[in-house]
TrEMBL record:
Residue ranges of domain Amidohydrolase-related in the record: 22-263
Any one GO cellular component localisation term in the record: cytoplasm
One BP annotation, GO: secondary metabolic process
TM annotation in the entry: none
GO molecular function: carboxy-lyase activity; hydrolase activity
Organism: Nocardia huaxiensis
UniProt-recorded name of the protein: Amidohydrolase
SUPFAM superfamilies in UniProt: Metallo-dependent hydrolases
């Protein structure tokens, strides 16, 4: 995120605001270049910059920042966002034309219904472009007026070919969002914070749904929420490993699915981020 935005996010987490519902210490409270070095040190080959507005007249500016950040950071996917406002279709179209490869929206923080009429044209463009939208729409860690599976089900009835990546696997409404994936091939999931000790203490993944983790193995993407996590990055990977779903499942979730969905050449990503040889 832009530094001034990230600092405000950290302040919110430090205050244990109502959307966090509990203390949330930031593990990787470092400057941008340190964070990038840390990610690459973990072996991360591609990542997003998941910005999102919480009020009108903010999204277009965030999109300008993410476009610039992606241009100077080869291993970052060009990310964009939007908010229900009169000019949303205009800046979303501009972002698509500029090469945005994923959008992020946060129903809980933005406090809007995903089916807002101001977003009708936006959803239509994204459906036609086939660009994924990572959407925080589950009711965890604190429910909002427009969170939960029902607004997303209504949206998908109108735009059945949307590619929605359900953040946090839809916690805590895991089963209902998995049901939507049964009906819509474009519904994907990200594992951000899922299965960690921190999340399992409040929104545990139901044991009865473990089989569907394997069934949807080609539609689940590893997510981390780095740097804004209250535990180590390695713990998020360990949390997936201890599900005991096998190396093949882990490989799909941590690499293959994202490489396929975003057409990422990870070998090229490695080369692009290596420091130049001294002359």
């Amino acid at each position: 995120m832009p530094e001034q935005v990230l600092r405000k996010v950290w302040e919110y987490f430090d205050s244990a605001g109502p959307l966090t519902a509990r203390p949330w210490p930031i593990t990787y409270r470092d400057d941008e270049q340190v964070r990038l070095k840390t990610l690459r040190g973990f072996g991360v080959r591609a990542f997003t910059s998941l910005v999102y507005p919480h009020k009108p007249d903010m999204a277009a500016w965030l999109n300008e920042w993410t476009a610039d950040f992606a241009a100077r950071t080869p291993d970052c996917l060009h990310t964009a966002t939007f908010y229900p406002e009169q000019h949303a279709a205009s800046y979303v179209e501009a972002a698509l034309e500029a090469g945005a490869r994923i959008f992020k929206v946060h129903v809980q923080v933005g406090h809007f219904h995903p089916g807002d009429p101001l977003l009708t044209e936006v959803w239509g463009m994204l459906q036609e472009a086939g660009v994924p939208v990572l959407i925080h729409c589950g009711s965890g860690p604190a429910a909002g007026e427009f969170t939960g599976p029902e607004p997303i089900a209504a949206l998908l009835r109108r735009f059945p070919r949307l590619r929605l990546i359900i953040a946090h696997m839809g916690a805590p409404e895991y089963s209902e969002f998995l049901d939507l994936a049964q009906d819509y091939d474009g519904v994907l999931f990200d594992t951000t914070m899922n299965f960690t000790d921190f999340f399992e203490a409040q929104d545990p993944f139901p044991a009865a749904e473990r089989g569907r983790l394997r069934y949807f193995s080609d539609r689940i993407l590893f997510g981390s929420d780095f740097p804004n996590i209250p535990y180590s990055y390695s713990h998020a990977l360990y949390a997936l490993e201890r599900l005991d779903l096998g190396d093949g499942w882990l490989r799909q979730v941590c690499h293959d699915n994202a490489a396929r969905i975003f057409d990422i050449d990870t070998a090229a990503q490695i080369a692009d981020t290596r420091p130049s040889s001294p002359s």
